[in-house]
Design goal:
The complex is a heterodimer of chains A (313) and B (427).
Chain A: H1 21-31, H2 33-43, H3 45-69, H4 78-88, H5 97-108, H6 124-135, H7 155-160, H8 168-173, H9 185-197, H10 204-219, H11 224-229, H12 233-240, H13 251-271, H14 278-295
Helix pairs in contact in A: 1-4, 1-9, 2-3, 2-9, 3-4, 3-5, 4-5, 4-6, 5-6, 6-14, 9-12, 10-12, 10-13, 13-14
Chain B: E1 21-22, E2 29-33, E3 43-44, E4 51-52, E5 57-60, E6 69-70, E7 75-84, E8 90-98, H1 117-126, H2 139-142, E9 151-155, H3 165-188, E10 192-198, H4 202-211, E11 217-221, H5 230-238, E12 253-257, H6 258-270, E13 276-283, E14 289-294, H7 299-305, E15 313-318, E16 325-327, E17 339-344, H8 361-365, H9 372-380, H10 384-389, H11 400-404, H12 411-426
Parallel strand pairs in B: 1-14, 9-10, 9-12, 10-11, 13-17
Antiparallel strand pairs in B: 2-8, 3-5, 4-7, 5-6, 7-8, 13-14, 15-16, 15-17
Helix pairs in contact in B: 1-3, 3-4, 3-6, 9-12
Classes of the chains: A mainly alpha (313), B alpha/beta (427).
Chain lengths: 313, 427
């Protein structure tokens, strides 16, 4: 029909949105930059080393893990996120072998063992963090004050031992002890807003997660703002509970996920032995994700919605 | 406005919205397939060497769901052979070489006021009219529903990017569309006629509003693909949902494309069968145009009329970019061809498929409320029974899921395989 043209035949649609996995992943990395910068500013150059070691170990582990599985490694950015997120939820005092071990565990056990990108049940960064916390609990709880680097307790630690609340303003800005990237709600909010504006993450998850914690704490007579801003809730709500792979597919499912995780945080903080509960709340809800997906299927056009107890599968 | 679930907003890319419909000189030769509709193919009524006139019936079938085919040029039948269709299939086709005279054979005009419902219906059948929006369902069958309907929806949505054939038709021949709609309303016995147009065509909305007084009401719709699909259109316009496995008539409505309306009008008032249509020729051609051409005109002839292609051509699509078919050899315009889209290297990006990251974009975009990513997994696991349970057969192949997929999974293609698998299961 057209001289010398080799026409391509491929199935419709012939038009595709420009979005790609790589673009999404690197945008998430970009969105984490305010929190990263804030962490390095507050906790010094050692924090930067922790971050670099963690990211690099994640990449190397993924390369080796994919090699072992016979899969081709692509620089899709997902390992960068895992490494970065793990570093951001480590105390700023950890020795450098810890991010290396944690990251490798996160990628090899948390991701590759399940079959690689898209297959893992649990958030890899949190798997790595949980592993480190269980294996070296004392190293994972050595906190320092920001800028000065003096040993101190986290706001939640102080609260748990009856020391009262920390100033809301300090919590919002991040001028408190805590993990490298979790202290500044403001910095996290900057990146999170970007992702929500681009519709890369669903606003329902952070809203339902943080909202549930605030509401329940209010009902329990606690300071809701303190509990919403302290600890890793913001980082977890915007960057971990919104991880595509390990959270529900539908909007309704994401609300259930957020409410469930919020409930778990409150239970752990109020009635558990630990001052903080974000890691485990998300990991536990990750396990429920397939079940939530099953019960929140959208209504198919031209069918009548059946109540969840009437559904077979 | 009730609206409909999901959908996507691709860029309009309507390059030809301001270009008047042009009528190019007649092609020297046309290839008229005997199957241009859903249903039984036609049997040829002419032999090789026969002399035919424009509008002469050259194929028909006794089947209930079928539509006759007419010669679109006067001249000599030079070949009766299998020819490639825009869809990629082959069909027995009549190849006519023009005698350059374009002598017509028309049916006697009918007065729609006086003619009976049956006479009008018979005329629509004899004129070989099929749904010109793309599906190609025989119009006389659609106009004779086994149940009572209360609404005729005239579909001027044209939601696919690039295509402007219906847009121009509304602007230039709006009154003819409405005359056709009136005839169809009479055949159906309905009072209510709604003309649905998306708000990316404000000029068409205004124009049709002016013309439609006394005939029907224009409904302005927020632009969203795939609103032109009759199921979603009915949801958006009437808030009615066609049950799974059902037809629009099950919810008391019939949807007809604006081009189909115009064809019905020509068949009744002028006695002319469906032998021409408006085609948007667009994309990487020197001058994109809306052309009124005879059925059977080769794509190559259309491209020539638009000054040929520009740059390195990668793909030629029959139909819109979302649901059209990529063609690889010269094929003829058929009754359902609304667009010929030429795509160059810049538009065709070949991307490697990656693993699903469960982002949920496809679930959000699916207007049918399916879970495309889940269906892909089931099809690839060859679990066709589960595919059926998860309503795979409800998929209209609108392409929203594959459009939004960041992993570039050819979801629609996989789902088509799933449909084949389910069909095998039933055997």
């Amino acid at each position: 029909m057209i001289p010398n043209a080799k026409l391509l035949v491929s199935p419709s649609p012939h038009l595709k949105d420009r979005v790609s996995v790589r673009r999404i992943m690197f945008t998430v990395v970009l969105a984490l930059m305010p929190a990263t910068a804030c962490g390095v500013y507050l906790f010094g150059l050692h924090a930067l080393w922790v971050i670099l070691v963690s990211v690099l170990s994640a990449l190397v582990s993924e390369f080796l893990g994919y090699r072992a599985m016979g899969k081709r490694f692509t620089m899709d950015g997902s390992a960068v996120i895992t490494g970065l997120l793990l570093a951001l939820c480590l105390p700023p005092t950890v020795p450098l072998w810890m991010p290396a071990v944690g990251s490798s565990f996160a990628i090899l056990v948390g991701k590759c063992a399940f079959g690689g990108l898209g297959q893992n049940l649990f958030n890899p960064a949190l798997v790595g963090r949980a592993f480190l916390t269980l294996s070296w609990p004392s190293l994972m709880t050595r906190w320092v004050s920001p800028l000065e680097g003096v040993s101190t307790a986290t706001p939640l630690g102080t609260w748990k031992s009856g020391g009262g609340y920390t100033s809301t303003w300090d919590l919002f800005l991040g001028n408190v002890a805590g993990c490298i990237g979790e202290t500044s709600a403001l910095a996290i909010l900057l990146g999170g807003t970007l992702l929500i504006a681009l519709r890369y993450i669903d606003w329902r998850t952070p809203l339902s997660y943080i909202g549930t914690v605030g509401l329940l704490m209010l009902l329990l007579g606690e300071d809701p703002l303190f509990h919403m801003l302290a600890g890793g809730l913001f980082l977890g709500a915007f960057f971990m509970a919104t991880d595509y792979v390990t959270t529900p597919l539908t909007g309704r499912g994401r609300v259930i996920f957020g409410v469930g995780a919020g409930l778990l945080v409150v239970v752990i903080r109020m009635y558990g032995g630990m001052p903080e509960g974000v890691t485990y709340s998300i990991l536990i809800m990750n396990a429920f994700t397939p079940l939530i997906d099953r019960y929140t299927r959208p209504r198919v056009y031209g069918t009548v919605r059946r109540k969840w107890w009437e559904r077979k599968k | 406005m009730p609206g409909f679930r999901g959908g996507v907003h691709p860029r309009g890319l309507k390059l030809t919205g301001y270009k008047k419909i042009e009528v190019p000189p007649l092609p020297p030769r046309v290839v008229v397939p005997l199957r241009q509709h859903l249903g039984a193919p036609c049997n040829p009524l002419v032999e090789k060497g026969a002399q035919v006139k424009t509008g002469q019936k050259i194929g028909d079938s006794p089947a209930a769901v079928s539509a006759p085919v007419h010669a679109s040029l006067s001249g000599t039948v030079v070949e009766l052979s299998q020819q490639r269709l825009p869809t990629g299939d082959k069909a027995l086709s009549v190849v006519i070489e023009s005698d350059g005279k374009d002598e017509w054979e028309r049916m006697p005009p009918l007065d729609p006021e006086r003619a009976s419902r049956e006479e009008l219906l018979q005329r629509v059948r004899e004129a070989g009219i099929v749904g010109m929006g793309g599906a190609g369902f025989p119009t006389h069958v659609k106009l004779n529903p086994p149940k009572k309907v209360d609404t005729l929806v005239v579909n001027g949505v044209e939601c696919e990017p690039y295509i402007t054939a219906d847009h121009r038709l509304m602007l230039e021949e709006g009154e003819k569309i409405l005359e056709g709609a009136k005839i169809m309303a009479k055949i159906l016995g309905v009072e209510r006629v709604l003309i649905a147009i998306e708000d990316n065509k404000p000029d068409a909305i205004e124009h049709m509003e002016k013309l439609s007084e006394g005939v029907g009401k224009v409904v302005r719709l927020r632009t969203k693909y795939p609103q032109g699909d009759e199921r979603h259109l009915l949801r958006a316009v009437l808030g009615r949902e066609v049950p799974v496995g059902g037809l629009p008539l099950d919810v008391g409505a019939v949807v007809q494309n604006v081009g189909t309306c115009k064809a019905v009008r020509d068949a009744v008032l002028l006695g002319e069968p469906l032998v021409e249509r408006v085609v948007t020729v667009t994309g990487e051609v020197a001058e994109p145009k809306n052309l009124r051409v005879r059925v059977g005109t080769p794509f190559s002839y259309l491209l020539q009329q638009c000054g040929g292609t520009v740059g390195g051509v990668k793909k030629v699509v029959a139909g819109g970019p979302m649901m059209g078919f990529a063609v690889y050899e010269d094929v003829p315009v058929v009754k359902t061809t609304g667009c010929v889209l030429v795509m160059g290297e810049r538009q065709v990006v070949e991307e490697e498929e990656g693993p699903c990251i469960r982002c949920g974009r496809c679930v959000e975009a699916c207007p049918m409320g399916l879970m495309p990513t889940h269906l892909v997994r089931l099809v690839r696991a060859k679990d066709f029974e589960a595919c059926q349970q998860y309503n795979l057969l409800s998929c209209d192949e609108c392409g929203c899921c594959a459009y939004v997929c960041p992993s570039k999974i050819p979801i629609v293609h996989v789902i088509r395989e799933g449909k084949k698998g389910i069909r095998r299961l039933k055997k």
